[in-house]
């Protein structure tokens, strides 16, 4: 009997153990998220939006990835698809791919893992990567992401030439062949052609990157008129220009053009310079991939990248692109109909193959998609307690109220708080803030000529030219209560006091944030006029204390500047006493709550701010809300006087390159700021160098970039030695640009979200760019089954307040 | 001679019969005429759509660091550098005549626009069909009941409800339905079920909040219209005559009043059914219906516009709209034989 009981007990224990084991094995952890836009194309060669890249984030990996540093307060780059850091093999490729003797850091070997597999178990080799690169650069496909291989810091040798094979493009003469009139011949239709037969044009309203610093000749003629140009034939030439701003070069148009740039001595050009205004049609020659494009497989598990310009360290690893696709599936998705190429790779469940930590297991367009663990992923054993999430579920839920209700009902693990939610959930233990890398600004047109013209058109007693007075623009900057503006438009955002946010990294090798450097801090105190108040016995003990005191709002100072601006305007005859200032504010539409609330706030704020000043009752605003997504162009084209809520994002790790948006007419909101003419003095190692803002911008690009600057009156060549010098230059440029007061920082993007109680973040504090650990490190407080039971116990609704 | 006469007579008979048939086939003649006119109108509308959409800004907004030549090359590769007339001819040849509507170039990049449309259509159709099946009978019944109880408390209750539901936009009670039925009472899921089993019971149940929200407007509209029409007919003289001839109230109501009041109501119901392919942007968004509701507006508002998607939808909805006009017109004749569309008599 005892034996039977013992046997029974043993059986019971076995059964319960088995049941427990089964329960453990079946424990699932689903991360439920909601999307407000839905991915439609996650082909790594063509995807266009951040939403599209969501699926790619889980189904693919890069050669290197970010991870926490050892002290968990910053980041480091670690090999991912690669097994080790890049090996410099430049010496092996001298004489090939355009590498010249003495070249450094231009060829890199990346050893890749041997255990990388597609979700169907097919092994992946370096040859697959090379084949994918060929498809990305396919000249027939004209893939949207092809330029990732030939723009930025990592420029693959020959990639652009191969991609452009057989393509006809328009090139600037000055930066390319520089044909003179003697090189050109008259075609049968009377238009001059190059020796290769390409038509030649006069660049009337076409940007010339070198000769005119990225501006068009029309911009110069419109701005400076008869003082610098003979405008007799100008209107006739503008009339002849095509949509691209080009006029075919014929004997007649040449004759019309010559006096324009040579007729007035002040412009300082002769007829010999005329070819610099040419642009011509050129067709890139057909090129073979092999032997010409520096991205290839050296062996089954070694990839070599040969670069057109040197790059190393962080920027190399960060800029490397691995556009791997499942080549046979990709080819099956390709169609060419009547010469038009299209590819459906990455548009459905059947047209995607994962080699990342998760694979797509269900996809219903504009509804839901689910990712589950990819059993063939190589990285699950790369660390303990990683990837506990077994399934990631994305629901398309555009309505915020529905998302909130679903979150409270335990169906979502995160909810992005909206303006109306902040009051209710601001004190929640589950709220998490994330600062973004974008600064949004208010931009005004400070150009006298265009404002005068607009003022005349606007009618009698309407004034706009007061915007040319710096004191007026300073008053606008000081009178803006940024905290209230954020509350009115987007409460999770915070006030901004400079051009770059604290998320911008100036020295990525060492993870140093730009805003944390002394130079960048000084920029802020300079801009807000606190530089003289810092030091012993003064208002602020140090720079940090001074910065902490900045709110971006100083009504008394603003009113002082409003009065000063008015006096200057009257004194200089820019304004009559009975004039009313009318500022036209441009917004993309009349439906966006952000722009509606923002405009309303601006009007009320400034109307109140000028009360008690000489501009009381004389500052008015009107709105053009019909400008669409390209509303910034309206300011560039002088159709409006002010924009707000505009800014640039991206280049988080390369603020030097990002500065282009402030100095290049291609990106500038205020196109009248001429960075090529604005001279800036910068002291480096005790020597004061002088150069244009544009030249300084160029000096910060890449490694070892040589520029010509002045020391006193002498020209000298300068190469910035290290990141420290780059930071000094960047801070000087930021300081200089802020002092123009045409681009007034308003707010820093940030978001607030509620975290569901089922999940646990790896770090409570946000560590850029790791965030709070992401799915890789996320753990769970409950299994899915436990969570369902918990929610049911709570009556179906969880209190997150 | 006799043979010739007989043949002549037969031929004349044949002609007479043909002329007779032609005279009586007024409905067919009318239909053919309307179809031909419809094709002409369709062609004009679609041509205008083509020109207007091409007038919108076609270049994507500038992006920091993007190769602008490449963006231009992509436009060229898609044929957007060709003269508008050439693009129009390609559109006529390939899409209108060839049935190849091409690939989406913006929102559903890389997907065939027809496939996208067809994938999303069933969800819209099913939600709307269920709504019609629920709303039309209920709307009619409420309208009839209110008419029969005219000026009594039942009529007042129905009329008040009708006014409320006609006045308040559907998305308002959609949010209320979701809040009370899905969140507070937890009777239904917030969103309709995922999957393509649109005829399954579980899918139907998950659609109920959307059906209710969409149905309120239809019920209210139909009830109001039916009540008004039926009230008018019920007080007409010929019904009084019918009653005096001995027909019961229910007989006069069902056989005469209802049928006559249906003349304007039936085309309205038909219109509602035709409208089921249109979808509702707001309701679809609130209840997660993966339908076609937002496709049209998205195709226009994107920069550049999604030309192929826009033209497919324009063509589809134009042809459906025009065809439904013919069907509605013809339906008058079926509902009331006295109405002879196209007849000269």
Task: Outline the secondary-structure elements.
The complex is a heterodimer of chains A (801) and B (345).
Chain A (H helix, E strand, L loop, with lengths): L1 H25 L3 E6 L17 H7 L4 E5 L6 E5 L7 E2 L18 E5 L14 H11 L22 H5 L4 E5 L12 E2 L5 E2 L6 E4 L13 H8 L9 H7 L5 E3 L2 H12 L15 E6 L11 E5 L2 E5 L6 H7 L7 H6 L1 E4 L2 E4 L14 E7 L3 E6 L17 E6 L3 H9 L5 E3 L5 H4 L5 E14 L3 H11 L3 E2 L6 H10 L2 H8 L4 E2 L9 E3 L4 E2 L4 H10 L15 H7 L5 H17 L8 E7 L6 H17 L9 E6 L6 H6 L5 E5 L8 H4 L1 H4 L15 E6 L2 E6 H7 L6 E6 L2 E6 L3 H16 L4 E13 L3 E2 L13 H4 L1 E2 L3 H10 L8
Chain B lengths: L1 H23 L1 H30 L12 H10 L6 H14 L15 H36 L4 H15 L2 H15 L16 H34 L2 H8 L4 H26 L6 H6 L8 H7 L5 H29 L10
Helix pairs in contact in B: 2-13, 5-6, 5-8, 5-10, 6-8, 7-8, 8-10, 10-13, 12-13
Descriptive notes:
The complex is a heterodimer of chains A (about 800) and B (about 350). Chain A is built from 25 helices and 34 strands. With about 800 residues, chain A is of the alpha+beta class. Among the domains of chain A are: about 120 residues, no CATH class; about 210 residues, Dipeptide-binding Protein, domain 3 (Roll), CATH 3.10.105; about 90 residues, no CATH class. Chain A is globular and about 115 Å long. Chain A starts with a helix and ends in an 8-residue tail after the last helix. Chain B is an all-alpha fold and about 350 residues long. Chain B has a domain of about 220 residues: MetI-like fold (Orthogonal Bundle), CATH 1.10.3720.10. Chain B is built from 13 helices and no strands. In chain B, helix 2 packs antiparallel against helix 13 and helix 7 packs across helix 8. Chain B starts with a helix and ends in a 10-residue tail after the last helix. The relative contact order of chain B is 0.14.
Task: Summarize, please.
The complex is a heterodimer of chains A (801) and B (345). Chain A has 801 residues and is α+β, with helices and mostly antiparallel strands. Chain A is built from 25 helices and 34 strands.
């Amino acid at each position: 009997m005892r034996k039977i009981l013992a046997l029974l007990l043993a059986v019971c224990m076995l059964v319960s153990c088995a049941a427990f084991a089964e329960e453990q094995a079946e424990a699932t952890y689903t991360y439920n998220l909601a999307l407000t836009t839905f991915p439609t194309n996650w082909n790594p060669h063509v995807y266009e939006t951040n939403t599209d890249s969501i699926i790619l984030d889980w189904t693919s990996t890069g050669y290197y990835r970010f991870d926490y540093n050892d002290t968990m307060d910053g980041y480091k780059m670690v090999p991912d698809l690669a097994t080790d850091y890049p090996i410099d093999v430049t010496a092996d490729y001298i004489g090939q791919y355009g590498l010249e003797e003495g070249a450094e850091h231009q060829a890199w070997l990346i050893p890749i893992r041997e255990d990388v597999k597609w979700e169907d178990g097919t092994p992946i080799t370096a040859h697959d990567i090379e084949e994918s690169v060929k498809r990305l650069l396919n000249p027939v496909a004209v893939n949207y992401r092809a330029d990732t291989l030939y723009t930025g810091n990592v420029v693959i040798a020959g990639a652009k030439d191969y991609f452009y094979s057989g393509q006809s493009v328009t090139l600037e003469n000055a930066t390319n062949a520089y044909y003179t009139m003697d090189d050109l011949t008259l075609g049968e239709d009377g238009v001059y052609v190059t020796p290769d037969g390409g038509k030649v044009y006069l660049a009337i309203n076409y940007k010339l990157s070198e000769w005119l610093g990225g501006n068009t000749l029309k911009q110069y003629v419109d701005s400076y008129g008869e003082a610098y140009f003979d405008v007799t034939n100008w209107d006739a030439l503008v009339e002849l220009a095509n949509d691209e701003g080009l006029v075919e070069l014929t004997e007649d148009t040449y004759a019309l053009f010559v006096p324009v740039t040579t007729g007035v001595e002040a412009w300082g050009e002769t007829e010999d310079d005329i070819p610099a205004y040419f642009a011509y049609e050129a067709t890139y020659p057909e090129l073979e991939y092999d032997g010409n494009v520096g991205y290839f497989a050296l062996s089954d598990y070694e990839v070599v990248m040969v670069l057109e310009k040197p790059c190393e360290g962080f920027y190399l690893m960060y800029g490397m692109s691995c556009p791997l696709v499942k080549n046979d599936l990709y080819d099956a998705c390709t169609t060419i109909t009547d010469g038009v190429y299209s590819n459906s790779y990455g548009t459905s469940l059947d047209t995607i193959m994962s080699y990342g930590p998760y694979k797509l297991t269900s996809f219903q367009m504009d509804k839901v998609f689910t990712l589950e663990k990819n059993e063939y992923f190589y990285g699950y054993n790369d660390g303990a307690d990683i990837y506990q999430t077994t399934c990631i579920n994305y629901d398309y839920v555009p309505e915020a109220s529905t998302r909130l209700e679903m979150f409270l009902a335990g169906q979502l693990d995160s909810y992005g708080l909206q303006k109306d939610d902040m009051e209710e959930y601001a004190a929640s233990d589950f709220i998490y803030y994330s600062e973004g890398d974008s600064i949004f600004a208010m931009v005004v047109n400070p150009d006298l000529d265009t404002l005068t013209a607009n003022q005349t058109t606007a009618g009698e007693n309407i004034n706009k030219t007061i915007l040319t007075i710096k004191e007026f623009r300073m008053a606008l900057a000081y009178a803006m209560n940024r905290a209230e503006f954020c509350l009115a438009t987007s409460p999770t955002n915070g006030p901004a006091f400079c051009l770059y946010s604290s998320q911008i990294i100036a020295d990525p090798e060492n993870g140093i944030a730009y805003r944390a450097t002394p130079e960048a801090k000084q920029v802020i105190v300079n801009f807000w006029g606190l530089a003289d108040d810092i030091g012993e016995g003064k208002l602020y003990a140090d720079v940090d204390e001074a910065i902490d005191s900045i709110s971006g709002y100083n009504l008394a100072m603003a009113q002082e500047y409003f009065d000063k601006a008015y006096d200057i305007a009257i004194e200089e005859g820019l304004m009559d006493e009975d004039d009313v200032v009318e500022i036209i504010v441009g917004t993309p539409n009349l439906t966006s709550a952000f722009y509606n609330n923002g405009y309303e706030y601006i009007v009320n704020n400034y109307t109140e701010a000028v009360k008690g000043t000489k501009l009381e009752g004389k500052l008015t605003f009107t709105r053009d809300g019909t400008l669409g997504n390209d509303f910034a162009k309206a300011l560039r084209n002088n159709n409006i006087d002010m924009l707000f809520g505009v800014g640039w994002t991206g280049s988080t790790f390369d603020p030097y390159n990002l500065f282009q948006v402030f100095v290049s007419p291609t990106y500038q909101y205020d196109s009248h700021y001429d960075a090529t003419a604005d001279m800036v003095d910068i002291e480096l190692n005790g020597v004061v160098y002088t150069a244009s803002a544009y030249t300084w911008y160029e000096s910060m690009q890449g490694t070892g970039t040589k520029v010509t600057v002045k020391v006193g009156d002498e020209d000298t060549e300068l190469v910035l030695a290290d990141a420290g010098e780059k930071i000094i230059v960047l801070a000087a440029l930021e300081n200089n640009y802020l002092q123009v007061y045409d681009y007034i920082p308003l707010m820093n993007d940030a978001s607030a979200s509620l975290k569901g109680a089922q999940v646990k973040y790896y770090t409570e504090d946000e560590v850029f760019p790791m965030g709070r650990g992401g799915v890789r490190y996320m753990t769970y407080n409950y299994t899915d089954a436990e969570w369902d039971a918990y929610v049911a116990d709570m009556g179906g609704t969880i209190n997150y307040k | 001679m006799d043979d010739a006469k007989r043949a002549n007579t037969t031929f004349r008979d044949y002609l007479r019969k043909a002329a007779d048939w032609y005279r009586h086939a007024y409905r067919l003649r009318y239909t053919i005429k309307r179809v031909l006119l419809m094709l002409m109108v369709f062609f004009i509308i679609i041509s205008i759509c083509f020109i207007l959409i091409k007038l919108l800004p076609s270049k994507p907004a500038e992006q920091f660091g993007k190769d602008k030549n490449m963006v231009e090359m992509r436009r060229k590769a898609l044929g957007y550098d060709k003269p508008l007339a050439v693009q129009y001819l390609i559109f006529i040849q390939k899409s209108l005549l060839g049935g190849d509507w091409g690939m989406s170039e913006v929102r559903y990049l890389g997907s065939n626009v027809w496939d996208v449309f067809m994938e999303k259509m069933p969800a819209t159709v099913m939600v709307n069909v269920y709504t019609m099946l629920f709303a039309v009978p209920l709307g009619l019944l409420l309208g009839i009941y209110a008419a029969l109880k005219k000026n009594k408390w039942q009529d007042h209750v129905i009329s008040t409800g009708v006014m409320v539901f006609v006045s308040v936009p559907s998305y308002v009670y959609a949010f209320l339905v979701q809040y009370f039925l899905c969140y507070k009472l937890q009777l239904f899921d917030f969103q309709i079920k995922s999957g393509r089993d649109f005829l399954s019971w579980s899918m139907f149940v998950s659609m109920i909040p959307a059906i209710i929200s969409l149905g309120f407007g239809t019920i209210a509209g139909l009830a109001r219209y039916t009540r008004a029409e039926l009230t008018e007919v019920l007080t007409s003289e010929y019904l009084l005559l019918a009653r005096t001839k001995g027909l019961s109230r229910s007989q006069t109501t069902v056989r005469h009043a209802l049928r006559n009041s249906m003349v304007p109501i039936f085309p309205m119901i038909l219109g509602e059914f035709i409208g089921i392919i249109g979808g509702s942007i707001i309701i679809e968004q609130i209840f997660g219906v993966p339908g076609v509701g937002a496709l049209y507006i998205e195709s226009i508002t994107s920069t550049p516009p999604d030309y192929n998607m826009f033209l497919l939808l324009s063509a589809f909805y134009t042809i459906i709209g025009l065809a439904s006009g013919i069907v509605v017109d013809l339906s008058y004749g079926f509902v009331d034989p006295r109405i002879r569309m196209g007849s000269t008599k």
